Amino acid sequence: MKLFTHNLLTSSIIKGVTKGYPLKIVSRKVEISEKEFNPELIARLLSRVEWSALCEAAESVGHGGDLPTSVPENAEKDEEFLRKAHHVLMEIEVVDGDLVCPETGRQFPIQNGIPNMLLNEGEV
Amino acid sequence: MASGRRPEHTAPPEIFYSDEEARKYTSNSRIMAVQQELSERALELLALPEDEPCLLLDLGCGSGLSGEVLTESGHMWVGLDISPAMLSVAQDREEEGDLLLGDMGNGMPFRAGSFDGAISISALQWLCNADSKEHHPPRRLFKFFTTLYAVLRRGSRAVFQLYPENDKQLELITGQSMRAGFTGGLVVDFPNSTKAKKMYLCLFAGGTTQSLPRPLGVEQTQTRKERLWGKPPKKSREWVLAKKERNRRQGKDVRPDSKYTGRMRKGAF
Fold first, then answer.
1. Candidate from B82, B109, B114 with C-beta closest to A48
2. DSSP letters along B77-107, please?
3. What's the distance, CA B112 to chain centroid?
4. Among B52, B98, B110, whose Cβ lies nearest the Cβ of A1?
5. Parallel, antiparallel or unpaired: strands B183-189 and B98-101
6. Which of A21, A114, A116 comes nearest B111 by C-beta?
7. Mind giving me the DSSP string for B5-52?
8. % of chain B at pLDDT higher than 90
């Protein structure tokens, strides 16, 4: 699971949960890989990234370091910033761990990099 | 795919798509070719702005065959599927999209307005089956469509290639999608061919009113003679031109049309 995907995920599908965001990450295994940098794609994705949640997530998996606290002006033209964003969004993957709902504490396990969002009967 | 029985009558999707079934999706070239063609057509129906990378949702992404088409068109995607075996195949194929194990009928676990579009290939009909006594297909479909509507950006589309069992099932699906706020309708390619006929539910998530895309395999202009018989008479020039157009759409190599196309030839050629 890339941190970009985590940034979109909510536990709102659970009955009774109002917002369910952001999900807390409990990581047991994190992998860094190299992905082709596409500045146009990153610039486009930035509009839907919740920046503070991303920083929090990066911190929790131990790769918070470099990130500015907010998205700078004219980020679409700022290549240095886009590269940092690309690294955090696309190149950090949680392979083993859990996602935790902030409202109910319910855990969604991540195995082999795939979060299991299946619900039990009572939660639907 | 298998003659006769519909897969949904055999077992729930997470069981039907076992390791063995999943392996077909990497070993059977015909299955792979069909899925690719369906995905390309669905992507075409999404009518995304040209040359702009978009974030898409692949519902029932399975082994990642459809996702690969999205990647090749320069888009980023997130895939959702209920079968661990199929997702495992997608991982082996090192698909670029992020994968999620989940049930479409539970709703979309994403923030509002996250996606620029959604596709779904050969998956939606699975939602119409009650696989346990708690399952209530209309409610599941409604939950699915309302949450999908929310996670799509205003003005974007969701395209579903599906195999409805019957009219009643199709009505249930389209009805629930409209109740959820979607507009749009059904695009049926090659409606006159039992073999080639394919259905795409094309839904619009708000935004300005859009018209339904044109289906393939439907004659757009016809002479009076053709309208009478439904098809151009065999071997006429119109028939030859139509056949060449069909082949072009399938991506075959076709000679350009000229004034000599469909000309009567004398004797042995």
1. B114
2. EEEEES-HHHHHHHHHTT-SSEEEE--GGG-
3. 24
4. B98
5. unpaired
6. A21
7. S-GGGTS-HHHHS-HHHHHHHHH-HHHHHHHHHHHHHHHHHHTPPTT-
8. 54
Find the Cα–Cα–Cα–Cα dihedral A35, B73, B32, B204, rounded to 10°.
120
Contacts of residue A47 in chain B, CB cutoff 8 Å?
none
Q: Which SS3 state, helix, strand or coil, does residue B149 take?
A: helix
> In B99-131, which positions are buried (b, 16+ CB within 10 angstroms) versus exposed (e)?
bbbbbbbbbbbbbeebbbbbbbbbbbbbbbbeb
Based on C-alpha coordinates, what's the Rg of chain A? 15
**B77 pairs with which residues across the strands?**
B56
Whole-number percent of chain A with pLDDT over 70:
100
For residue B201, the one-letter residue type is L
Report the candidate in A104, A102, A99 with the shortest Cα–Cα distance to residue A114: A99
Task: Give pTM, 2 decimals.
Answer: 0.83
User: Smallest Cβ distance to A10: which of B74, B111, B143?
Assistant: B111
Token duo for residue B232: 């151009």
CA–CA separation, B97 vs B75, rounded Å? Answer: 9
Assign B233 a pLDDT band (cuts: 50, 70, 90).
low
Complex ipTM value: 0.95
Q: Is A117 on the interface with B (CB under 8 A)?
A: yes
Q: Residues B66-111: pLDDT tens digits?
A: 999 999 999 999 999 999 999 999 998 888 899 999 999 999 999 9
For residue B30, give how far its alpha carbon lies from the nearest alpha carbon of chain A (Å).
Answer: 28
Distance CA B124, CA B121 (A): 8
> Closest Cα of chain A to B213: distance in Å?
26
- So what's the pLDDT on residue B4? 59
Distance CA A74, CA B13 (A): 46
Mutate to test the interface with B, among A45, A107, A120, A124 (most CBs of B within 10 A): A124
B67 half-sphere exposure, CB direction, 13 A CA radius: 28
Give A66→chain B minimum CA distance, Å: 24
* Residue B223 in this model has a pLDDT that exceeds 70: no
What is the C-alpha separation between B73 and B56, in angstroms, rounded?
11
Task: Please report residues of A whose CB lies closer than 8 A to that of B107.
Answer: 12-13
